[in-house]
Amino acid sequence: MRTADRQHAVRVSGSAAAPTPHARRHAAAAAGRRRRDEPRRTPARAQANPRLVLAAVHAGAALATTGCWTGLGSLAGPADWFGWTGRLTGLLAGYACAVLLVLVARIPALDRGIGTDRLARWHAAGGRYTIVLTLVHLVCATAAHVAREGAGAVEGTIRLVVDGPGMPEAVAGTALLVGVAIVSVREARRRLSYEIWHYLHFATYAAVFLAFAHQLTGPDFEDSPLMRLLWRALYLSACAALLWHRFLTPVRRALRHRLRVAHIQLESPAVVSVYLTGEHLDELRAEPGQFFRWRFLAPGMWWTANPYSLSAPANPRFLRITVKGVGDHSRALGRLRPGTRVWAEGPYGALTAARQRGRKVLLIGGGVGISPLRTLFETLPGEVTLVYMARRDEDLVLRRELDHIAAVRGATIHYTVDDLYGSTNGRSVPLTGRHLRTLIPGLPGYDVYLCGPSGMTTAARHALRRAGVPSRRIHLECFDF
Questions:
Q1: Given 3.40.50.720, 3.40.50.80, 3.40.190.10, 3.40.50.150, which CATH number is that of 6-40+352-476?
Q2: What is the value of pTM for the model shown?
Q3: Buried b (16+ CB within 10 A) or exposed e, 306-318
Q4: Residue ranges, the chain, pLDDT below 50
Q5: Within the chain, how many helices (H) and strands (E) appear?
Q6: Do the beta carbons of residue 225 and residue 216 sit within 8 Å?
Q7: CA 351/CA 388 separation, integer angstroms
Q8: Kind plus residue range of the DSSP H or E element containing 347
Q9: CATH architecture of the region 255-348
């Protein structure tokens, strides 16, 4: 952590005056109504265990391919081996498609237990495996067909595509999958806006369902009614979860809660807080540290839903997000008019109190990454320390609220202002394990929550590991796409 420019710590244990703006007063007053040793905690909700989920996925893959191993000893010749390899990879690719649908269905238990960012990484890795399995299946199945037919490679391939059961649809689905894979390559992805990249991925749904009929034509399904039943049940369950959580639930909640913009608060020249009101907001059960995907029904903004964390604990009267204007969508938030209707998908995310293992907690935030940490700073139980890093004084947003919370809780805040902070000049945040251990005595026994630019969180994670903090105690979520 760089200290050459300007750094100071604040430790307060008495009362402090609440911020004067009407909307901000509501946010800070919640902390003043609770005693230090009685922070608010959201009741526990169902959440999945990552290891059990992975074990279930692997067990399902083993079950799906059971039939491939029974006749393995009778294979003879290249045609049989090509056919067997195509059969195995086809089953695994079909099974992986269903798993990919479940991973992006935004099932609350999976999201809270595993985390949105980890689910996204699993989905990305699973997508790459699926593409490889699909292409290997295509090549091997075609080679087996050509070898058995005794025709030329071109003629045999054309016959298979034209006359094979479900083959035209399967080929079209494979083409769509490959197209999505191409636009997901890092270099191609950087040239696309998030919105275009996101909507192109809807082609994945079409690809999966185009290939479904072909999947049921293999020998594992023709000879086993039970296998056909289980396969249909798998896909119906994945489709039901996707339809309910990705499409129907947002509509239902929009009609139920009727969210709208109530107030826009300028926090700094580049940062605004958006206050939203609605009906039955307590039913959302949003936990501190979580985020929503917000769709503002204003001209030029209605077609995209961007993730922004809550910057104040949810309450029955209002929700609040604090956003830095770094793109067209985020900059447009400052121009929203009160009364603008809003659709909110969520709450999502696992950066919550459920990850806390002990009573000592360190929060490290950079810039507007303070948003979810501000809610955790107010609500996490135990001894909480906050390190807030920024490039300039004006980038220390929500500072009056943080000081007020620290006063109520007797907590510690380290404000670090450094003109070299950030990555715009090509430099990483100079966090070091030695300095963190000096700043926070007993650091290896802390739970650490990180939120900020990717360069800062990466440097902080490496520094924490060098300082002796176990990886299981370092908690963060990344929204990079």
A1: 3.40.50.80
A2: 0.80
A3: bbbbbbbbbbeeb
A4: 1-24, 26-43, 419-429, 481
A5: 18, 12
A6: no
A7: 17
A8: strand 342-348
A9: Beta Barrel (2.40)
